[in-house]
Amino acid sequence: MNIRRFEMDKDYDSYSKLYSDWNLPYKKNWIQEDTFIIENDKNIVCLGSLYQFGQTPMFFIEGIVSNKNIDKSIKKEGLSILIDKLYKEAKQKGAEVVMTSTPRDGLKNIFEENGFYQTPEKYYHLGRIE
Q1: What are the tens digits of pLDDT across the range 30-82?
Q2: pLDDT digits over 82-118, tens only?
Q3: The pTM of the whole model exceeds 0.85
Q4: Could you tell me which of 50, 74, 52 has the C-alpha nearest to residue 63?
Q5: What gap in Å lies between CA 88 and CA 91, rounded to an integer?
Q6: N- or C-end of the chain: fewer Cβ atoms within 10 A?
Q7: Residue 14 has pLDDT above 80, yes or no
């Protein structure tokens, strides 16, 4: 598998297709500089972004989306590589805490396999898009 940084001109159509396939909202200006793509045989396996909370040492791994047409074992391996890469990028930028949120049990499990832990509090994830 190959990991590379997202390139707007080259990758935006693939990005929008992945989000559309999962019926998720997306906008071009939401794409962060620290967005990475995992590929296998030139097929996108998954992608995700690293967001910094202002100028604090708090970072979020978000915007993770996978290719619905990729074999589950390849997808799991790709997601693990992506999570590790985004975590290392955050640490290199001075992160003291790296967080994420997901409604998907499978993705939660991959994060836990990569050293993340579930907080004991119950969180509600709410959104509003203008």
Answers
A1: 999 999 999 999 899 999 999 999 999 999 999 999 999 999 999 999 999 99
A2: 999 999 999 999 999 999 988 888 999 999 999 999 8
A3: yes
A4: 50
A5: 5
A6: C
A7: yes
In whole angstroms, give the CA distance from residue 120 to residue 85.
26
Q: Are 47 and 65 in contact, with CB atoms under 8 Å apart?
A: yes
Summarised one tens digit per residue, pLDDT across range 67-79 is 999 999 999 999 9
Contact 15, 36 (CB under 8 A): no
State both tokens at 48: 């995700």
Q: Can you give the length of the chain in residues?
A: 130
Torsions phi, psi for 64 (to 5 deg): -80, 130
Task: Report how far apart the first and last C-alpha atoms of the chain are (Å, whole number).
Answer: 37
